[in-house]
Each structure stands twice: as structure tokens, then as C-alpha cells.
């Protein structure tokens, strides 16, 4: 166990574990966030020997379904993995606005931390970190000897540069909202391998924020476009990148991490990622005929088609990923909360879950807090009640109903199924919904501007990590970059800030329950479901790990000879 001082909140968490108030996973998550190694945290967890607890158990809704198949032989080197995915047009990784933009590039650019499939965050490009007792000062220790693919060594200067990018309003990163507890003046280079963060408000989520997909580390010389400067610390180099078509990544020979055989990772020689058109139905045909080996972010239709096919490994994971129906509260008719509530009453949630996801998910309550979050509180959603919807619209000045346009990405089948079901059911509630469909690429071009739209949102491990991305204002009172609805609620923001600084899980859960109630009652989104996600791949490949975030990481993937 570490000989350095243990953060005083860790023994408190250990006592909560002993009492059965939190799960072993929650204790490991808390301890590692506060700077303890995973090995030492496991020892402390074993010492606590908690009784069985109905409040928080290891196998809760956030548990990841593990791969049961285990290869008999060790990893084999060589080969190519072919993946069907979206190949997005990108420039600055800090501006990544969806997970699919990161799939190829996370093999070139890496992260300061790594959150495993169980939600435990560990050092990666950092050797370790330390948090002050009051959680206002965080010291980050950069791993020595890591080199970018141009031979330049990673140092504190690069880390400081990246924080400066994330916290620069002109860059437009979602991390600006996520890291609302910090501004650029609070980032200090202590020496060549040490960075100190001086927070404006306490937070325990820094290590997890550092693994969010816009937090990829670029060198201090970065000019703003990774397609022109693909200089990262990752295990692959980008040999070819054609947006909307394909990319090819080639293994480095001098990567800083070794595999099981003592040689540098990766095991594979190349990764080939292809986009087979805007309509992803072609992905399934390519998988079944052997043209590709895996589909990244497969839709539910692929799961349904191959779940019983012995050729493929199919791994299911519950998540907080969802499709968010978002209303611009600065525009009519959504400025009136009665109209927003009316639309919530038009949601037949069980029907939507069935038609959109074939019941492969959980029901949502119009808050952006999922059963997969440890802080989740079971607050029932508004019932399906079209008469109540009509009454609310009449109160709001729409006795004859209201006509709205709903913008939907046509190549997101879950969104299309959701939109069509809502259009049909909401008609009885006084809403005439006209669907405006477009390719996802076009949707993302204006995703924060639509009056009414359905936006894809990825999984985040903890609720207080997710909510600041889209439901608060910045220091100047303006909605943060990803606040697509422009909804800012003073009470919500105050409670959220308190939740961000609360380590004690039962207390944080109580605060998050209040946030759920506020979003349900007067929030700007309808969230009828949260989604399962899948890893689906040819069984000739091994070392593909589950990811509730749907991250694609193939460093330790290998192919049978």
C-alpha cells in the first residue's frame, strides 16, 4: 500500500463500505479518484468486509456484462482489423462533439487517465495524481519517457497547453462546461513533469473528465487540425484519412507500453476503418459476409440480427447513453414550461422503448440521470396522458393545439423510431409534429440551433459529470457550449455544484434526486429511455473490451493466426 498520506475522505468511504451504504465498486471508484492506486484500494476494500447490502450491490444496473469467452493461447502479433464505423470530418479534438469522431483518433492521441469498463479511473499518461484535503488543489504527475510519434517527449508543457485549449472559450470545447470548477489561470506548471490545478470550487471528477473523448492530448506545438498534424503518443500512426470514406492506421514500433510478450504494443499491424454510406444498414451485410470484422457503435438492428450467430461475440452493456429530445427554451413555444410538460405527457415510454430499442434499455424520467449512474434515484416519469397534454396547451394559450417541426437524423434508427412513435401519439395531445429528416452529418452542423431536435448523447460514468455539459451557464452567465436548449435554472445549478463537490455517495444521491425532480418538472428535455450498447465482433479476434462509452480501443486486440 502507498506510504504517502492517504486522503482523509478515503477512510470515510471505507467506513461507508463497511456499513453497506456503498458498493465495493463505488469504494474503488472513490479511492482511485482521490489518488490511491487500484491495488491499494482493493486491499482496503477487502479489509472493510462489508455485509450484503440491498442499497448498493456490485451487480447493479451499471454492471458491465463481461466477455465469457477466453482464448487458450496468448496474443498473436500481426494482422489487420477491419471496422465499419463513421469516419468523421474533424479538426481539433477538443471540439469533438460525439464519440464517433474519436474512434480512429484515440489510437493516435491518448488521454491522461483511463476509465475501465467497471467505471474505475486509473492513471495513463499520468503516473499518478494527488488531491488536497479540501479537493481544491490537484497535483498531476506526468509519466516520464512517453514520446509523441515525432520523437518529442511528453512534458508538463504539453499538459498545460491542452488545459489552455479546453478552457479557452474561443476553442469551443465541451470540457469548458464540464470543468466549470477551473479556469486557465488556475493551471500551474510546477516542473517539467508536474502540473498543479488550483480549482475555484471543489470537485472529485477531474480524473474522469480527463478521459472524456474531447480530452485527447496533443503536443504544445499543435496548430489546430489533427488531419494535418497527426502527432500523438498513441500506438498507431494515421496513414490515410478520407472523411466519410475510410482511414488506415499503422502500428508504431516504439510505443511506450508493452504487451504480454514484453514487446511494444499494439499486437495488430493495421486498423482499417470504413464508412459504408450514410445508411448504416450496409454495415450488417459487410459483417455477415466477412468484409469487416466488427461494427463500432452497432445499432439495435445489428444486435437483433447476430445475437444468436455463433460466428460473433456479442457483449451487451447497460449505459446512460440516450437520445435526447431537446427544446429551445429561448424560442416559442418552449419558453412556456406548460408546453414542455405537455410534450412529456405525450410520451408512451414503454411503446417508444419497444419500437426504438426492442426493449434493450431502461425507461427514462426526462432527467439526464440514468439507472446506470450510482447516484440514480427512482423517480417515476410523467404518465402517458394526452388529455393532460391538451389541458396544459390550452392553459398556455394553445386551445387548438400547436404545430412544431422536429429535426431528426435519418441514419440514427433509434431516433427515427422514437420520432415517429411520438408524432403518432402526440397528435391526440394537441401536437402536430412535422418531421424534418437529414443525415447525421447535417444534423451535427446545426445541432445546438434546432428549435426542436433529437440529439445523440453518450454515456458518462457519473451524473454530476454529465449534467454540467448541457444544463448550466458559464462564469459570464451564458449557456455553456453544449447547452443546446439554453435552459439555465438557478436552483438546479446551485444543487449541481454542491453535488459535484460531494464525495459521500448517499448524500450525493440525495442531491441528484433533487436534480432529477427539477429536470422532470421544469427541464428542457424529454428522455424516454437509456440504451444498452454492444461490442459485436468476429470471434477470431480477442482482447476487445466492453465500453459503456462505446469507445473503440484496439491496442491489445489480436487476431488468431
How are the secondary structure elements laid out?
Blueprint: H1 9-19, H2 24-33, H3 38-48, E1 80-84, E2 113-115, E3 121-123, E4 126-131, E5 137-142, H4 156-166, H5 175-178, E6 187-191, E7 194-198, H6 206-209, E8 236-242, E9 246-251, E10 270-274, H7 281-288, E11 294-295, H8 300-306, E12 312-318, E13 322-327, H9 337-345, H10 349-357, E14 361-363, H11 386-395, E15 402-409, H12 413-426, E16 431-438, H13 440-445, E17 452-457, H14 463-466, H15 490-500, H16 505-522, E18 525-526, E19 529-538, E20 541-542, E21 558-559
Helix pairs in contact: 1-2, 2-3, 7-8, 9-11, 10-12, 15-16
Describe the structure using short key phrases:
4-stranded antiparallel beta sheet; Dipeptide-binding Protein, domain 3; 561 residues; alpha+beta; 21 strands; globular; single chain; 8-stranded mixed beta sheet
Amino acid at each position: 500500500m502507498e506510504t504517502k498520506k492517504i486522503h482523509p475522505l478515503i477512510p470515510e468511504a471505507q467506513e461507508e463500505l463497511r456499513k453497506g451504504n456503498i458498493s465495493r465498486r463505488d469504494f474503488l471508484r472513490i479511492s482511485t479518484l482521490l489518488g490511491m492506486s487500484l491495488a491499494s484500494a482493493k486491499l482496503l476494500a477487502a479489509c472493510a468486509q462489508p455485509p450484503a447490502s440491498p442499497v448498493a450491490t456490485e451487480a447493479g444496473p451499471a454492471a458491465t456484462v463481461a466477455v465469457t469467452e477466453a482464448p487458450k493461447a496468448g496474443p498473436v502479433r500481426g494482422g489487420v482489423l477491419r471496422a465499419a464505423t463513421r469516419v468523421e470530418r474533424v479538426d481539433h479534438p477538443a471540439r469533438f462533439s460525439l464519440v464517433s469522431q474519436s474512434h480512429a483518433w484515440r489510437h493516435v492521441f491518448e488521454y491522461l487517465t483511463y476509465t475501465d469498463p467497471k467505471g474505475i479511473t486509473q492513471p495513463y499518461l499520468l503516473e499518478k495524481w494527488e488531491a488536497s484535503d479540501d479537493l481544491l488543489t490537484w497535483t498531476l504527475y506526468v509519466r516520464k519517457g512517453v514520446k509523441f510519434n515525432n520523437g518529442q517527449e511528453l512534458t508538463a508543457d504539453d499538459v498545460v497547453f491542452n488545459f489552455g485549449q479546453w478552457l479557452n472559450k474561443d476553442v469551443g470545447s465541451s470540457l469548458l462546461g464540464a470543468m466549470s470548477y477551473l479556469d486557465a489561470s488556475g493551471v500551474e506548471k510546477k516542473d517539467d513533469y508536474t502540473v498543479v490545478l488550483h480549482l475555484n470550487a471543489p470537485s472529485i471528477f477531474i480524473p474522469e473528465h480527463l478521459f472524456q473523448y474531447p480530452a485527447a492530448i496533443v503536443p504544445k506545438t499543435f496548430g489546430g487540425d489533427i488531419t494535418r498534424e497527426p502527432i500523438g503518443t498513441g500506438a498507431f500512426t494515421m496513414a490515410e484519412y478520407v472523411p466519410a470514406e475510410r482511414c488506415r492506421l499503422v502500428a508504431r514500433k516504439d510505443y511506450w507500453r508493452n504487451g504480454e510478450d514484453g514487446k511494444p504494443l499494439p499486437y495488430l499491424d493495421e486498423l482499417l476503418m470504413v464508412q459504408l454510406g450514410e445508411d448504416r444498414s450496409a454495415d450488417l451485410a459487410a459483417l455477415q459476409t466477412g468484409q469487416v470484422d466488427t461494427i463500432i457503435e452497432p445499432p439495435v438492428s445489428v444486435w437483433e440480427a447476430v445475437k444468436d450467430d455463433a460466428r460473433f461475440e456479442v457483449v451487451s452493456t447497460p449505459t446512460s447513453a440516450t437520445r435526447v429530445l431537446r427544446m429551445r427554451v429561448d424560442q416559442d413555444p418552449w419558453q412556456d414550461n406548460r408546453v414542455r410538460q405537455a410534450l412529456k405527457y405525450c410520451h408512451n415510454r414503454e411503446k417508444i422503448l419497444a419500437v426504438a430499442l426492442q426493449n434493450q434499455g431502461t425507461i427514462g424520467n426526462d432527467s439526464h440521470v440514468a439507472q446506470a449512474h450510482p447516484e440514480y434515484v427512482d423517480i417515476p416519469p410523467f404518465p402517458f396522458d394526452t388529455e393532460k397534454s391538451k389541458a396544459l396547451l390550452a392553459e398556455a394559450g394553445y386551445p387548438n393545439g400547436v404545430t412544431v417541426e422536429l429535426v431528426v437524423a435519418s441514419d440514427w434508427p433509434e431516433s427515427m423510431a422514437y420520432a415517429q412513435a411520438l408524432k403518432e401519439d402526440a397528435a391526440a395531445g394537441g401536437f402536430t409534429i412535422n418531421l424534418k429528416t437529414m443525415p447525421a452529418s447535417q444534423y451535427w452542423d446545426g445541432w445546438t440551433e434546432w428549435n426542436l431536435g433529437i440529439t445523440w448523447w453518450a454515456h458518462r460514468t457519473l451524473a454530476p459529470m454529465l449534467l454540467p455539459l448541457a444544463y448550466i451557464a458559464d462564469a459570464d452567465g451564458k449557456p455553456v457550449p453544449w447547452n443546446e436548449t439554453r435552459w439555465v435554472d438557478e436552483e438546479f445549478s446551485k444543487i449541481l455544484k454542491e453535488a459535484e463537490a460531494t464525495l459521500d455517495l448517499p448524500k450525493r444521491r440525495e442531491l441528484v434526486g433533487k436534480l432529477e425532480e427539477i429536470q422532470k418538472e421544469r427541464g428542457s428535455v424529454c428522455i424516454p429511455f437509456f440504451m444498452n450498447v454492444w461490442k459485436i465482433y468476429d470471434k477470431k479476434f480477442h482482447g476487445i473490451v466492453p465500453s459503456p462509452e462505446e469507445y473503440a480501443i484496439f491496442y491489445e486486440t489480436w487476431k488468431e493466426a
